[in-house]
Amino acid sequence: MHALIVVAHPDPRSLTHGVAAHLAEGITLSDAGHSFEIADLAAEAFDPRFSAADIALHLREGVLPADVAAEQARIDRADALVLVYPVYWWSMPGLLKGWIDRVFTNGWAYDYGADARLVKRLGRLPVHLVGLGGADAGTYARHGYFGAMKTQIDHGIFDYCGARVVTSVLFEAGPDHATAHLEAARAVGRRLFVTSGRYEATDAA
Ligand SMILES: Cc1cc2nc3c(=O)[nH]c(=O)nc-3n(C[C@H](O)[C@H](O)[C@H](O)COP(=O)(O)O)c2cc1C
Fold first, then answer.
1. Gap from CA of 91 to ligand 1 centroid (Å)
2. Contact assessment for residue 54 and residue 102, using Cβ atoms and an 8 Å cutoff
3. Model pTM?
């Protein structure tokens, strides 16, 4: 089994990159046969701007841009999609949002045609979401921020396309949080291809 791990953080020394690396290590620990590829969107200079070519494709008046085709091909090659990202303004960073905007196209992630019927096209793709927050658990709980993120991201994006969100965790700030998060990330990786049910934050703790 092969995982595509998408990381959206400009600093390779960040905790976000550390979490992605530990998650990848967990995948290789779980079974010698499993593999992964890390898509480092910042290092690869992925362009998140939704352009005239993207809207033309959306309206089924244009052709698939080459960079979008390449991203879709690496998702098509993967048995699981993992997103690792810092929380920016209680959501994903613009870089990752732009990746979704451009790559999860009408005609590939879903079909929404003239008859206004939605066909979900990513039913085969298990998704694992790992967000890192700079705020603590109390702040998230007080404002319901993580619930809002799940509504928007897990349901609004992935369920819309039919992809099953298997893991949805938020690593908040707290005492010794870096060490705990790196260990929890390794555990997510180890269980990536053995988890049948939904994997929540409490499982990672
Ligand atoms: C532009 C920006 C916006 C941020 N917004 C939030 C936020 O809304 N909530 C939060 O918990 N942390 C926020 N943070 C903190 C990041 O989530 C923090 O960087 C994260 O814990 C990951 O750590 P790392 O950057 O070392 O990987 C923000 C950071 C930046 C740079």
1. 10
2. yes
3. 0.94
